[in-house]
## 1
Amino acid sequence: MSSKTFKGGIHPKEYKELTEHLSFEVLPFPEEITLPLSQHLGKEAKALVKKGDEVQPGQMIAQAEGFISAPIHSSVAGKVMSLGKEQTSSGFPKDSIVIKTNETGESQKILFTSLDPETVTPDEIRERVALAGIVGQGGAAFPTSVKLTPPKDKTIDVVILNGCECEPYLTRDYRFMTEHPDNLISGLKLIMKALGVKRGVIGIEDNKPEAIDLLSGKARYEQGIEVVSLKTKYPQGAEKMLIKAVTGREVPPGKLPLDVGAVIQNIGTAIAIHDAIVKGEVLITAALTVSGKGIKNPKNLIVPVGTPVQNVIDYCGGVTEDAVKIVVGGPMMGIAQFDLQAPVMKATSGILVLTKDEVAQNPETPCLKCGQCIEVCPLNLMPTKLARYTQLNRFEDAEEAGITVCMECGTCAYTCPANIPLVQWIRLGKQKVLQIQKERVVN
Amino acid sequence: MADTQTIDKPTQKVYFSLTTSPHLHSKWTTSKVMWSVAAALVPSIAAALTFFGWTQIFIIITAVVFAVGTEISIQTIRKKQITWFDGSAALTGLLLALTLPPDFSLSATAIGSVVAIGLGKQIFGGLGYNIFNPALVGRAFLQAAFPVQITTWVKPNFAVDSVTSATPLAALKFDKIFTDTASMTIGNIGGSLGETSAVAVLIGGIFLIAVGIVNWRIPLSMIAGMILFGGIFWLINPQNPTPVFHIFAGSFLFGAMFMATDWVTSPITNKGMWIFGFAISFVLVVIRIYGGLPEGVMYSILFMNGFVPLINRYTKPTIFGVAKEAVKK
């Protein structure tokens, strides 16, 4: 079986062996949870509770504001302690609701009525997904109901489930695929129904042969669903790369997957959709991989949304002596943390504790013009040039060279033998260019 | 860069290293690259010592010492960070030594090293900023300053009877004598220290391609270019050498593997590398056939080094998802 792929990319050490064989464990309720009102792209939700209110798990405590937004639900039974700015894993404080868990532990989980996936209508699916607060589980946390409501003038002909999990260490999607294959396919069918699409593809990297075999076996009995084996290469799971590998179509800069007739959903999102429709559940847990050589007991966990990172790390036995860095997300695109009270959010896919050995920082030297960053860039950009233009404040040149197209996947900086922090420079340049573009519109 | 702050907790101490993503990095560093290239030259050094005697090691030592010394001196004078340990200066010295003829004067070798690092590299601002290959700049200076010495060849050890001390190219150009390919492959022929043994050069070159330091496009396009252009000249006039002779003679392979592939002075785009390689071979064939000198690898590479910024400018890759027609507009 030959595996499909895209041009460029890298193959970092996977480290998946740390957790891939471990079933999900459920983290006990923490004493206190922090729920940021903005755990998704778009407008932040509007709080529905005030200090002192009693809440139940599954109760909506903040409602969606506007079209691109998502509601927030309490993940525990407890009392609202405060509403205000709290530190989040994004590095910025955000408006949040802090809830103290009931000591009695008594709770009444609030559920929707269960819907029959055979008879449910597309509108019912969209409405339920919106009310359940489901957002994309891949990391960007785009509200899923919006993705299921494409503009009338766009024709969608394929839904692709992203089973690549191309970030090293992370094994959450792999566990989902092997532990809940039926729910996954049910979720995919619901997505296809909501969009009126006949073709569903599950794209899986070929380093997960068990998942490919298992899901291929299941897909054989489903109409229009196929499993596609993809080459194990970072960033195979990036939307544009995945669409290219599966369909051969290229999403132009500034356009969306639906402009080329494709909708991408994460494995975790499909499971959440199945749970919302069939079991009537709202999205109040996050499935994540806790891994890295710096954590004593690596695990795959189901965590109540809002749990502080510290609680998760403690549950996994704490950190080792040589731990130097704690990252929320994957090692290639995740964010290094300085405050472990930051909560796990809906789209948190991993917490990594990395040792000095894993994150070795080598001395930076001038650019050697080796061209390797250009060769590996999946979007055919020239990272060294973009970084250089930023260093020289040549933002017009940076704009023309396509700096805003960069998705910050980190492939270039990983590869650079001169150890130049290319992504850091490009991120800075991108912000400046976006600012200039904004001013241009105003003038 | 790594801001580390210590937070004391009653139970455990956690160090937070805060840097932006990506948090993983390949194991390559500038110095590892430089020392790997130096390691890839070991077969060539061994061949040089075998065929021309162990005393040739003094040329290599002199070239390396003076290259590193020049780097340290200039960086000291300019009050810059001393970076000799990144290996780039030592590598330049090593490469220069291997382009020199056996028994070359040590004082001239030292001058060559000083020029290579001083004029070839540091004057542009040091590592990464030079336009021309520093080792070749040093070699070109010596060619101009010591034209007789640098073309005085030594008869190698283990040479078959028919082999003279002249290089295959010189033998052909001035005496119309063809050297057999087998000798040129092994290296028991006249020539510069590192260039005579094609086998040794290929072992090092293939190692560098395998570990990803040398981009295969440059050597391959040079060889393909030589087959194409050398072949055309040979078809026009069978008196001209065959493409195979062109490839094995002189420093073609050494240049293709170790000189043209110098990162700093070669194009950064894949397309650019193809153009660069083909163009070097074209210029080289013209020099070898119509020029006054028998050999032209050094000049053809230096000549094309000058075009690298231009090549980079016109071979920008098309951004993912941008249709070809849209770019033309």
## 2
Amino acid sequence: MGIEVAIACAKAVVMLLIALQVMAMGVYFERKVSAIIQDRIGANRAAIFGFAGQGIVNTLVADPVKFLLKEDVRPAGADRLLHTLAPVMAVVPAIAAFAVMPFGDVLEIAGRTINLQAASLDVGILYILAMASLGVYGVVLAGWASNNRWSLLGGIRGSAQMISYEIAMGLALVGIVLTYDTFDLQEMARRQGELIWGWLPAWGIVYQPLGFLILFAAGIAESKRIPFDLPESESELVSGFFTEYSGAKHLMFMMSDFVEVVLVAGLVTTLFFGGWQIPYLGREGFHFPWGSTIALPSLVVAVLQILSFSVKLVFFTWLQIVIRWTLPRFRYDQLMRLGWKGLLPASLANVVVSAALVLLVGSRA
Amino acid sequence: MSIPLFLVLAALTVASALTVIIHRNPIYSALGLVSTLFLLAVLFLGLDAQMVAVLQIIVYAGAIVVLFLFVIMLLNLQVEERSSAAPPLIGAAALGGLAMGGLVILAIVRTQFGAPVPVHAGFGGTEALAERLFTVYLLPFELTSLLLLVAIVGAVVVGRKRA
């Protein structure tokens, strides 16, 4: 009993640490990638004993400490309870969503077989959708509780945007569920270890290229960052729904943004790029299609898989940050048109085509 | 689900539900509704109904109440004035409430509770739910989707610009 609880806690901590470490790397990329794109040097000043680490000290030590030490200002007329509650409601669902994300296959150790997933849920994908849909309350409440018109406009824009893109996101997931015939993310990741024609890994991107594009676009829209940052939109709304936030609460909104970026990266990785899979790596080691094998112990395989998952997470976090610094912001009507007239019909078509293919060829199960 | 856990969750659910009707600020009422629906989802989880719990959050807490909040903010509804209803109305409401409570208690007293039945593996999961939904309850399911279609068409008609 005690050891079971300890294992469950350890798995949760490992997943949380992976997510938060990648988030921190995302913050670093945000500063440095933007600098490179705009031909600047970027954060490089703050240093500890002369060590600046290419801006790592600046972005990951100096900035957070500065945020935490700043005065927490609450505007007059703001709703005391909701103004404080809103940042929490933004960041908690985003972190909670990682519970069902598988970060490795199984670890066989001391006679136990440990499933490397914090919570093995039969309805994993729907759970992530549910948590993503709860994230909207942070935005809406921040906008309302601040007693500021810019904030309110940002909050209203945010709620409309997130609801619109959730629909496309949910329908994009239907295609992948049809392909793998399960809602469980771990099961999906395992099925992506199979091979097509004996050499091509059966990753989701092979079956659902359109689903990937829709999910990625809708995911970026859900994280409310450029080009979808209408709720924030600093040229029109000062800073949108979090105009009236300072110090640690402001930091929590920033954190929820970046955690959502990592969540989208995790979702894309798990559904379309094999999750923790490394091509040809099975539970006993590598089995190459040309016949040679390399046997590896379970611990090494698990570590390789966790590394593989983390590297893919970092890559897709980096990709989202490059997109964010490359594209300009949409106008509000363009945003709604893309969501309702672009992504929604495309995702519906994707569902129909996927269903027809599954009917004719059979699913991967 | 253990009894103490259930009691705590049930008390919280009732408190949230009371917030919905008692609080004077419409935003807090809507949030009380979110909290009620979320806690109901947790209670469903305790009954091994994972699918229903998650759908409850996606559909109600994640979409419908967000639209409530959206409308409340757009209309900029203020804190309600406390107004007292006419005495006969209060009397009728109290009588109705008491009668309803009496009915519920009567129903609980009259029911013969059997021993708890162990659930089979996969109970409340997607497959079990889908199997019932698409075999035994196919007709009600399809009729409901027809009803939803009518509602969507109605929304489009109402939302269209008048020519």
